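Lecture 7, part 2: worked example. A protein chain together with zinc ion.
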Amino acid sequence: MGYGACSREADCLATPFTRMAKGLNSLSWYPFLRIPMMFAGKVNVTESSPMTPSSILMACSECDLLHWVERPPTRGNSSCTRCGAILRRGGYGSRDVALALHAAAMVLFLLALSFPLLTLHLHGTAQEASIPGSARLLANLGWPWLSAVLITTVILAPLAHLSGMIYVLLQLRRRQPNRWTARIFRIVEQFGAWGMAEVFILGIIVSYVKLAQMAVVVPGPSLYGLGAFMVVAAAAVSVLDIGAVWEALGGQAVEAASELPKGARTAREANLVACLSCGRLSPLKDSSCSRCGATLHSRKLKSRERTWALLLTSILLYLPANLLPVMRVVSLGRTQADTIMGGIIHFMRTRSWPLALLIFIASVLVPILKIIILAILLISERRHSSRWPEQRARLYRLTEMVGRWSMVDIFVITLMVAMVELGTVATITPGPGAVAFALMVFATILAVQCFDPRLVWDALTLDSRGRLGQREEPAHG
Ligand SMILES: [Zn+2]
Ligand SMILES: [Zn+2]
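Predicted complex, written out as structure tokens:
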């Protein structure tokens, strides 16, 4: 039997490069590998009226503008016509392919957890480090917080995400998925946001170069397992249409047949509220999403106050994070304290320019840029500024994407401490700056999550008295 006929000519013509480009577009390191939009597929959205009787109404999660999105979805991404945020990311394979890839990623991840990551040979002694072994060692050495960061972001979050995805995809193969599946899927997606395996791999590369200057370092099987896991996990993300999974777990509330209030352009103006977890539109009076159970708010609750509080916390932590030592190296009776800048200067002295630049961008530039961008967003929102909303929306998206990469220095410290536990020959301990730095990174990530980008666009619909018309959100709870 030959190959099945393809119903869409464009898909048959897709070259392997095009498919790879589409897959890369959906990765979390998207900003660094952004492929020109010409590869991203057609945008099948319209603001005015439904294109087909089965078109569904969606609100942009970043500006609240309503769009009719064609269904069944095309394989490209559908973007907001006003702010450019992605409304719906297309998937490039079936749910069964996604299930197989998630299962393969799980096997590779479990293998990566079971074997040594790196082996260090120094003065006739050998020290092996695996991911769980490093976490255990850090807890035993009196650094439970560092161990907790490693366990949460590198072990638990990816494991919970993968096992949850496998469970949800298995449930979808049944005629009647378990009624808890949608709620589990919401939690699974949140775990995915805190998984930082790709940042950890970058941390391993930096630690490898640092350690290779003082000892012989041999990569272990776990490193190859982790690399293969990253490739398979990226493929698993790119084949799955998340919007279609949500639809299979419960249809959209508003379909083409529905009438919208005349002149309503945003969900709020149409007396609707969009669920930020699953995208379902519900009446403004509803307090929780009937599909995934998430609490509904027309705008994030106390967004300004929470973002300001977290932003000020990050600013206060930025100084100790950069001035205090993040790591102490005790070697042959000599103690050397390293600050973040000290580490960068060390890489420059040893002519490791790419690593110096990488640590400078990830640990110094990204946190300060995030603080400045959040301050600009908050101040312009407070002044009800309607200037450059698209540029501000892009800045917000940038901070959302790059924040996690600042964790690379924390993973380097984690690995260095775990690797160089060679008793009297050499020891490395984390310094107080590392605590401040990790807290600062978490505070900025949370600040970005607390900020509601829809506030940027609300200024455009404010009346002359600076109030949002008559459609204020009723208080919930
Ligand atoms: Zn938008
Ligand atoms: Zn929902």
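Residues 93-251 form one domain. The first helix runs from residue 9 to 13. Keep this in mind for problem set question 3.
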